Amino acid sequence: MPKRTRILAVGTALPDKVLTNHDLEEMVETSDEWIVKRTGIRERRICSYETMMSNSGASELGARASTVAIERAGLSVDDIDGIICATFTPDNFFPSTACSISRLLGRDNVLAFDLSAACAGFVYGCTVANALITTGQCRTILLVGSEIISKSLDWSDRTTCILFGDGAGAVVLQGTDDEERGIIGTHVSSTGSLGDILTLPAWGQKRYMSMNGNEVYKHAVRMMSDATLKCLESCGLSCDDIDLIIPHQANRRIITALARQLGVPIERVVINIERYGNTSSASIPLALDDAWKDGRIREGCRVLFTSLGGGITIGSAMVRF
Fold first, then answer.
1. Average pLDDT of 229-252?
2. What does the pLDDT read at residue 203?
3. Which residue of 83, 221, 240, 292 is 20 to 30 Å from 270, comparing CA positions?
4. 261, 224 in Cβ contact below 8 A?
5. In the annotation, is 214 catalytic?
6. Does the domain spanning 4-176 belong to CATH 3.30.2010.30?
């Protein structure tokens, strides 16, 4: 059985529509200056109203990102034997978004399921995919983070509608016997007692996201830092061994505070929230794609993924490329 799980390639997909802070000034009582100062966000991508109302948006974006990732990995869809989709905005309760992605890719007879861990979904997915591959149950897994968050927002609520965007990212994960490469270790956890600070009801009259931003900020840096240190400890590494941090893009202030807490220079942190906003499970693969294109992902570099989401769910993963 493989000793490690490597990330072979990443692909992304975004809606065409760009919603700027100036556009939001026309919709709610806010300003570009206030949004940038408090969040670091300048614009985000939003699906069309027709896509929001359809039962196919997350799977279609996910399939587009997956196609790019598979091509970049130099593989064909027939090489994929597992699909995991991290999402809290699925097209349907069932079939799963992962099954819909498999249909769009034309790949039947594969393991396929959705994973719900909100903004920590991608790191949770890395953990699960690594376990499936290193125990020999799958050889090549497509891990997708795909979100149509715009359909879950109250567009009159300025505390939430300014923060989020739509998008998808996918990575191809494959087993390897090279113990110097791949997912070195992960740490995932949850704190259910804090679940009410960030919620999206599945049923009932109020089916919009609600968030206590102050509480999220208060816990985010501490929890992500703790998950990172536990992940590093499991790998026998320290913060000095991190070449690059790719955090969940929730808020620029959270990201900079996390880097400061870990003692990692901000130059070694990937930040692209200004262009995409918070895309939940898609945010880390979107940032990974940017870093790869910019030449920041080099052979042998150690990259830390870290995230926090509703639940509260927390996760960190150390990967050597």
1. 97
2. 77
3. 83
4. no
5. no
6. no
